[in-house]
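Input (structure):
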């Protein structure tokens, strides 16, 4: 997993799973602590995600909400959306709607 910081946005690339969760947790929480306002996680480069990774995002979302901020997922791939629905974490995570491609 590779994570690039672009202002208030974190761009995630690669497999987001139990192996990368510790690194991602550190980067996400450090970013939430250092950035004022809302944070966006661009997951358009995430090829696969598991429930452990999505639970990390759910906890980070709740922390952001407790601080009066938003953490939004942007660019969810079909694989990420599928796991969000299977885990029912779509109820907790804020997901930006993707534009329909004609």
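Output (sequence):
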């Amino acid at each position: 997993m590779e994570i690039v910081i672009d202002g208030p946005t974190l761009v995630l690339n690669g497999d987001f799973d139990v192996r990368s969760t510790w690194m991602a947790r550190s980067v996400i929480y450090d970013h939430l602590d250092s950035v004022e306002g809302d944070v966006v996680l661009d997951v358009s480069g995430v090829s696969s995600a598991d429930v452990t990774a999505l639970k990390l995002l759910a906890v980070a979302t709740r922390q952001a909400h407790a601080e009066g901020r938003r953490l939004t997922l942007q660019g969810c791939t079909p694989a990420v959306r599928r796991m969000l629905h299977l885990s029912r974490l779509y109820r907790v995570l804020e997901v930006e709607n993707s534009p329909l491609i004609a």
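Notes: Residues 2-95 form a domain with the Transcription Regulator spoIIAA fold (CATH 3.30.750.24). The longest strand covers residues 39-49.
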